[in-house]
Design a protein that fits this description.
414 residues, Rossmann fold, 2 domains, five-stranded mixed beta sheet
């Protein structure tokens, strides 16, 4: 029988990968809390309608990528491909409108059935921020600033570039949509199959087509800025002014779009050239029409998400945890006292490893192999004298330390 293998597009988090994952989440959590956001954790699966309604039945994610199945109760269930829709569902089902504004952050696994490639898996992990209930551009500035600070604290801000665009308000967006349909309809015989499919439902998605033939056509497409009404221009000007005030650099990117109609105003991506063609490491936007679309009250929202695996490919390897103190009992009579000493040191904040079997030599060898800094040798003679023998596993130097006040004597290894 062949050895069991992980499912294609999944991976195990252990060792250095686990340290990178934990480091990114730790930085993210600290930054989000500095901004006054509170943690939320939603289920990894929802009724399929939650995602099919919000992402659009004809979107690539729903039609090609979601993990959707019928459970034993006959319900259609979908593993979450992103967090925003689940958070919006929690807002509606939990009756949280009374608590607005809501500033939420979370993280966890997402699932998309797509071709695995560098930094893009079928089970992947994201961090996520959502701010609900604030229609003013100050919310856009704050969420953008949070994303900037997160990447800065990860040491990545000099390796990314902020691309910024506006989708305008619904009136501006509809005017632009009409102009795009008129323009692209003139090239119907030359558009790619995907772009033809998108023309009626979400023509803005054609603007970010990767098809080379589409790119030639897109180069002459109408500009969003030419269809912005006065209110949309004023909103975007305030967002840009806020970023300028904070010293957050950006480039205007008219081709940065969101295809679904519930998006409006600000859209952005932090992009890098370090990861090849898949350059986005953090992306976000305003979605004032999402919660009403799901049957909830009119509630503005804005947020971003970032892939943990992709960020992990860019950061330095996090420092290894503190090197452990190895407890090595000498003889059976020392086993119980050694257990007590190990427990006492752990309660005092030390990293302690205990060997489970083998003679003293083998336990010391295993402790060195596992990276322990020092070993405490505990035998009947040492216990009778009220001491333990500390052996430095790098220098082999030995020193007797009193049991009374052992925590203080080992302070350098805490």
């Amino acid at each position: 029988m062949a050895a069991l293998q992980p499912v294609r597009g999944t991976h195990d988090l252990i060792g250095e990968d686990a340290r990178r994952h934990a480091h990114i989440i730790g930085i993210f959590k600290a930054v989000a809390q500095r901004y006054g956001f509170q943690e939320i954790s939603t289920p990894i699966f929802e009724f399929s309608e939650v995602f099919h309604r919000t992402l659009g039945e004809t979107s690539d994610v729903v039609s090609k990528e979601t993990y959707t199945f019928t459970d034993r109760g006959g319900e259609s269930i979908t593993l979450r491909p992103e967090m925003t829709a689940g958070i919006a569902r929690a807002f509606i089902s939990g009756g949280l409108a009374k608590d607005l504004p809501l500033k939420l952050y979370g993280w966890g696994p997402m699932f998309r059935y797509e071709r695995p490639q560098k930094g893009r898996l079928r089970q992947f992990h994201q961090v996520d921020v959502e701010l609900l209930g604030v229609a003013e551009p100050q919310a856009d500035i704050e969420v953008l600033s949070l994303g900037h600070d997160f990447l800065s604290d990860l040491g990545l801000i000099d390796r990314v570039e902020l691309h910024l665009n506006t989708l305008g308000d619904p009136e501006s967006r509809q005017a632009y949509r009409t102009a795009l349909v008129d323009y692209f309809s003139g090239f119907l015989d030359k558009l790619s199959k995907d772009s033809k499919r998108r023309l009626d439902r979400n023509p803005m998605r054609i603007l970010d087509s990767k098809d080379e033939g589409d790119k030639v056509i897109v180069a002459g497409a109408p500009r969003m800025f030419d269809y912005l009404n006065e209110a949309s221009r004023a909103f975007f000007d305030k967002v840009k002014a806020g970023l300028d005030t904070l010293g957050i650099a950006y480039v205007l990117d008219e081709r940065l779009v969101r295809g679904l109609d519930y998006y409006s105003h600000t859209a952005w991506e932090f992009v890098t050239t370090d990861l090849g063609a898949q350059g986005t490491v953090l992306g976000g936007g305003r979605y004032d029409g999402l919660i009403p679309l799901m049957g909830g009250p009119q509630t503005p929202g804005i947020g971003f998400a970032a892939g943990i695996e992709r960020l992990g490919m860019m950061i330095e390897t996090p420092a290894v945890p503190a090197r452990a103190i190895a407890i090595v009992p000498i003889g059976e009579a020392a086993e119980v006292p050694a257990l007590r000493i190990a427990h006492r040191l752990r309660q005092a904040g030390f990293v302690v490893e205990q060997g489970y079997r083998g003679n003293v030599g083998k336990r010391l060898e295993r402790a060195s192999k596992n990276g322990a800094r020092v070993a405490l040798l505990i035998g009947e003679e040492e216990l009778a004298a009220g001491v333990v023998k500390r052996r430095d596993l790098d220098t082999r130097e030995e020193l007797a330390l009193p049991l009374d006040g052992l925590e203080e004597a080992l302070g350098a290894y805490r």
